[in-house]
Design brief:
Helix content is 34%, strand content 20%. It contains eleven helices and 14 strands. It has a seven-stranded mixed beta sheet with strand order 1-2-3-4-5-6-9. The protein has a five-stranded mixed beta sheet with strand order 10-11-12-13-14. Strands 7-8 form a two-stranded antiparallel ribbon. It binds zinc ion (ZN). The site of zinc ion has 6 residues, from loops.
């Protein structure tokens, strides 16, 4: 998900929108309820909730993408940053958890609800680390077709200054922290972050708990990338792994396995329709997600929009 910088009411009333955009906007409207629309969020009311994951490792939940912070003698490493107006509250939460200055920020992908808080950490001296394409997309204006929205380039201090093509590893606070790029899933710059010896994985938005994921086609996301990513996370986890989704509550491997199985099931149904030469609208009418909608279809991404984006990423 991303920060949307236009007034929603204007978009809903926009006469130039196609029917498809109107359908997508109705999905965006659901975001309001989850406080993910930054301009509709009163940051003064946001509280940062701290959930212990392991010794010196915490999940932080405020407004926007979930964060994880590692604290200890080497300083703090923060995964994702939510929004800049929450900086003081995020720092306070890290301090309350026993942490000191943030030395490194790791971004799971470029979307504004995960990188919007980078700038104040960068200005304070944190080194920001992410996949190559996170810097590329944050450096240039982006257009998100799903929301008919332009996103301006980020300020210089918000940009990753250390980037990597496939993976990197931190040896920090006694932990081995693997940051692993997965290709073309939610975007073309996703990474998951594995705290290997603490058995915790932050998936970024390659997983949103108990809801259909957002395949950001404008950032070259795909359902096959989601499945490949999920298989990598499963391969690095066991029954006791704590999985921090990009959005939603802390998950177990069993929760995540169910997500993987849903993706594989939907993909099989979609592929059959694609092979039959069905158009996008015909595929939507065939309801390839029907068996999964009761559980997964009540979140930000409606069954129809999930089907459209998944279809677009599969069609020849
Ligand atoms: Zn996202």
């Amino acid at each position: 998900m991303t920060r949307l910088s236009f007034p929603l009411a204007e978009l809903l009333g926009g006469s130039r929108l196609t029917l498809r955009h109107r359908l997508l906007v109705s999905a965006a409207a659901l975001l309001v309820g989850s406080a993910a629309l930054a301009q509709d969020t009163d940051f003064s009311k946001v509280q940062i909730e701290t959930i212990p994951l392991a010794p010196n490792l915490y999940m932080l939940m405020g407004s926007g993408g979930n964060m994880v912070v590692s604290t200890g003698k080497d300083g703090s490493v923060l995964v994702d940053t939510e929004y800049a107006p929450l900086n003081a509250k995020i720092r306070a939460a890290i301090k309350a958890a026993g942490g000191t200055d943030v030395k490194f920020v790791v971004n799971t992908h470029w979307h504004g609800d995960h990188t919007g808080g980078n700038e104040p950490f960068g200005k304070a001296g944190a080194v920001i680390v992410a996949h190559n394409n996170v810097r590329v997309r944050m450096s240039t204006e982006q257009f998100m077709a799903a929301f008919n929205n332009k996103i301006p380039p980020s300020p210089a201090a918000a940009l990753p200054t250390v980037t990597f093509p496939t993976r990197t590893t931190f040896h920090w606070n006694g932990n081995t922290v693997n940051v692993v790029h997965v290709e073309n899933a939610h975007t073309d710059g996703d990474s998951f972050v594995q705290f290997a010896n603490l058995n915790v994985i932050h998936t970024g938005d390659t997983y949103m708990k108990d809801q259909y994921p957002f395949i950001d086609r404008s950032s070259l996301g795909s359902i096959d990338g989601f499945i490949a990513s999920a298989e990598k996370v499963l391969a690095r986890s066991d029954a006791n792994t704590k999985i921090v989704p990009g959005h939603g509550a802390l998950a177990t491997r069993a929760d995540f396995q169910r997500f993987h199985d849903m993706l594989v099931g939907v993909r099989a149904n979609l592929k059959k329709l694609v092979d039959e030469g069905k158009t996008e609208d015909e595929v939507v009418a065939a309801k390839p997600t029907a068996a999964f909608d009761d559980f997964w279809g009540k979140g930000f991404m409606t069954p129809e929009n999930f089907t459209r984006f998944a279809y677009q990423s599969l069609k020849p």
